[in-house]
Amino acid sequence: MESLFILIPLSLLLVGLLAWILHWSVKSGQFDDLDGPGESILMDDDAPTPNKVSQHSQK
What we know:
Layout: H1 4-27, H2 36-42
């Protein structure tokens, strides 16, 4: 029974810490765009770029 006097405040402190971490992460924009980085890999430009010929090789 005496251990509850330690465990209950400790668990409340842990819940408060986790709530603060969640609030900070939402406020700092950690969850703004979850799909964009994954889709940007799929939308990569696969068209080859034309090779530029230097003036020295055109002789």
